[in-house]
Specification:
- This protein is of the alpha/beta class.
- It has a single domain, classed as 3-Layer(aba) Sandwich (Rossmann fold).
- Helices cover 42% and strands 15% of the residues.
- It has a seven-stranded mixed sheet, with helices on both faces. It has a two-stranded antiparallel sheet with strand order 1-2.
- Strand 3, helix 4 and strand 4 form a beta-alpha-beta unit.
- Bound molecules: S-adenosylmethionine (SAM).
- S-adenosylmethionine binds next to strand 3, helix 4 and strand 4.
């Protein structure tokens, strides 16, 4: 039996549906309601990557996997390491690709978290830098870890206040190379009212002082990036809708 190669058609359908989903405000509102309900169970804290806690929604892990595989970066910088799951997740993809490293930056890398990361099979592709992510001495250490000509991707997942994320966008945005992504995590908070903001967190973020506001301000001051509407369109049940932007050709 002969079968027809339908891959182009399949991809075109995915693209069309993702763009349509991105326009569906009713579904987005339902997703926001669901995420608010799930947060009562600390849903984004329930997962692990290769045995290490990863504080992410599954949809964001998939989206990050898609952009890493598509763009094949040599260096991925992540601000906000926490227990290490996300740096190890990205390191495991680089390991499959046989190249590169993840630079994890955190203001507070606790001894037990450092131990879990440094004893993990993927640790050979991880460099940890302790320090405030927007501090000049941290940035000097980060830049020193980037080999000349490397393709660089950045994920911002540290302090989610507007001013801090904007400072990070300005500092790390310039490091992102052509065709690669800057991921601004937790843009969902820009859709959450003060009344619905999670109260159990150490800091309270809600619309106005959060990553989406910072991203909007950053996009207003630079034309270096474009929003990937297809990827962002399917980011429902995600912490970072609209947070995946790609550096244009220089
Ligand atoms: C949301 S957690 C990161 C989660 C992690 N990316 C993951 O997916 O598992 C935020 C982390 O940002 C760190 N952080 C907070 N403020 C920071 C700052 N100014 N600079 C660097 N890291 C910071 C915290 O110590 C915390 O570990």
């Amino acid at each position: 039996m002969t079968t027809q190669d339908d891959r182009l058609e399949f991809e075109a359908h995915k693209r069309k549906q993702a763009l349509a989903l991105g326009e569906d405000k009713a579904v987005f509102a339902q997703s926001l309601d669901m995420l608010t309900a799930l947060d009562r169970y600390d849903y984004s804290y329930l997962w692990s990557w290769m045995g290490v806690p990863i504080i992410q929604m599954p949809a964001d892990i998939m989206a990050t996997q898609e952009v890493i595989w598509e763009t094949k970066p040599d260096v991925i910088i992540e601000t906000g390491v926490a227990r290490g799951g996300s740096v190890l997740f990205m390191a495991s993809l680089l390991e499959v690709m046989g190249k590169g490293k993840v630079i994890g930056v955190d203001i507070d890398i606790r001894a037990h978290n450092r131990e879990a990361i440094e004893s993990h099979p993927m640790s050979k592709r991880v460099v940890l830098i302790e320090g405030g992510s927007a501090d000049e001495d941290t940035l000097t250490k980060v830049r020193a870890e980037i080999p000349p000509g490397a393709r660089v991707m950045v994920v911002l997942d540290s302090d989610h206040s507007r001013d801090h994320v904007l400072a990070e966008c300005r500092a790390y945005g310039d490091l992102v190379t052509e065709g690669c992504y800057l991921v601004v995590a937790d843009t969902l908070v820009g859709h959450v009212s003060e009344e619905n903001a999670p109260k159990k967190r150490s800091k309270l973020w809600f619309a106005g002082n959060e990553p989406l506001s910072a991203l909007r301000d950053y996009m207003a001051e630079t034309d270096a990036f474009e929003v990937n509407e297809v990827l962002n369109g399917k980011l429902v049940l995600s912490s970072s809708p609209g947070g995946y932007i790609r550096r244009k050709s220089r």
